[in-house]
Amino acid sequence: MLQLYYAADTCSLASHIALEEAGADYQLARISFAQNEQRSPQYLAINPKGRVPALVTDRGILTETPAMLVFIAQIFPQAHLAPLDNAFAFAEMQAFNSFLCSTLHVAHAHRMRGSRWADDEAAIESMKRKVPDSVRGCYELIERHMFRGPWAMGEAYTVSDPYLFTIAQWMEGDGVDPMSFPRVADHRRRMSERPAVRKALAAEAA
Amino acid sequence: MLQLYYAADTCSLASHIALEEAGADYQLARISFAQNEQRSPQYLAINPKGRVPALVTDRGILTETPAMLVFIAQIFPQAHLAPLDNAFAFAEMQAFNSFLCSTLHVAHAHRMRGSRWADDEAAIESMKRKVPDSVRGCYELIERHMFRGPWAMGEAYTVSDPYLFTIAQWMEGDGVDPMSFPRVADHRRRMSERPAVRKALAAEAA
User: Fold this and answer.
1) Are residues B71 and A87, on separate chains, in Cβ contact within 8 Å?
2) Do B39 and B116 belong to one domain?
3) Cα distance between residue B1 and residue A188, in whole Å
4) pLDDT tens digit string along A62-112?
5) Closest CA to A191 of A158, A146, A142, A145
6) Does residue A101 share a domain with residue A46?
7) Which residues numbered 156-175 in A keep a CB inside 8 Å of some CB on B?
8) Number of structural domains found in chain A
């Protein structure tokens, strides 16, 4: 059985929702960032990077949200969570996910994880001050150029949708007004009504 | 015909090498960062993100290195650049690429692109000082946990190899001694001898 290592309020929610959308049989394993469990020897044996998510499978352990999302789509093809038979459409979806992980999530991370990239407190505070601007710039690209509607990649719901929804949960915390981005805000609202999303959020809040 | 928008000394080299490895018929279009061409209206019409690489195809334009690398592997299956028939192995390769784009490349980017994440000069200088540490931490994970040998993902050469090679070109500039990471250094040396790599490097230096 699949086992998802997750932490509340992190990008692991995207894979959690994808597992729900796929109708997967899986178990949850919670990692407490408050207790720094992601750096425990037990967890580092699962993911030496000390990050979430990690997905334990019968073949081995996978990490990195974009890789896990596509894996879930591939092993549950009946859920139609990715355009698996169309290389170009698949690449467009992958590009969307790659932007989320390497640009938008990274911009957001400068609010609470600045110590990854600087040691002194003044620099870390300076990074925090820039987060609203840098995150807003990412949403401008998404709203104007990348988001197709009604779902991220157009007519078909894909794993890009739970990924965008997950990161968009952080907008207010990042100092970005969702009302500035009506298409992203509407997507977030519609996503929050999906049974898979409600179930995943309820499990993480429990 | 495919057209690759690239800039010298950037991650676009990975896609350039992959196109060579695939035996693709493609054209190069150079973007000069020195002349800020990535922010020109002409280029923003191709890639609104103002970054390289971008790949013009007969279906449309693709961006984001991890997406482009897999697309190249998929449309040239005879080149065997990815484990396309094995969802788990494919996900492992994608996880490797995702780590390169969202963690290692991001750590490196704090040396020359700090203005993405802070406005004041002192903070940007502070970020630069941390780059050797943060980049070294990424190579420790690659050397000890992620790199399998002889190629990144093991016996089979994949698109992860040109991607690792491309980023590993920046080690010295990032203040990281390649000799501290003998497996990565050996990979870099073997990669530099491949005809596809030599041809791509020569074209970008021309």
Assistant:
1) yes
2) no
3) 38
4) 999 999 999 999 999 999 999 999 999 999 999 999 999 999 999 999 999
5) A158
6) no
7) none
8) 2
Indicate if A91 and A188 belong to the same structural domain: yes
Domain CATH number, residue A10? 3.40.30.10
Secondary structure in 3-state letters for chain B: CEEEEECCCCCHHHHHHHHHHHCCCEEEEECCCCCCHHHCHHHHHHCCCCCCCEEECCCCEEECHHHHHHHHHHHCHHHCCCCCCCHHHHHHHHHHHHHHHHHHHHHHHCCCCHHHCCCCHHHHHHHHHHHHHHHHHHHHHHHHHHCCCCECCECCCCCHHHHHHHHHCCCCCCCCCHHHCHHHHHHHHHHHCCHHHHHHHHHHHC
- Tokens representing A155 are 């007519």
Q: Using a CB-CB distance cutoff of 8 angstroms, which residues of chain A are in contact with residue B2? A: none
Residues 6+ apart with CB under 8 A from B41: none
Integer Cα distance of B86 and A142 in angstroms? 32
Q: What is the Cα B169 distance to its own chain's centre?
A: 10
**Cα–Cα distance measured from residue A45 to residue A40, given in angstroms and rounded to the nearest whole number:** 9
Structure tokens at A36: 């720094």
What's the complex ipTM? 0.98
Q: Does B94 touch chain A if contact means CB atoms closer than 8 Å?
A: yes
Of the residues B55, B56, B64, the best mutation for testing chain A's interface (the one with the most A CB atoms within 10 Å of its CB) is B64
Range of the domain at A163: 87-194
B16 and B47 both lie in a single domain: yes
pLDDT band at residue B30 using 50, 70 and 90 as cut-offs? very high
* CB of B58 less than 8 A from some CB of A: no
Is there a contact between B101 and A102 if contact means CB atoms under 8 Å apart?
A: yes
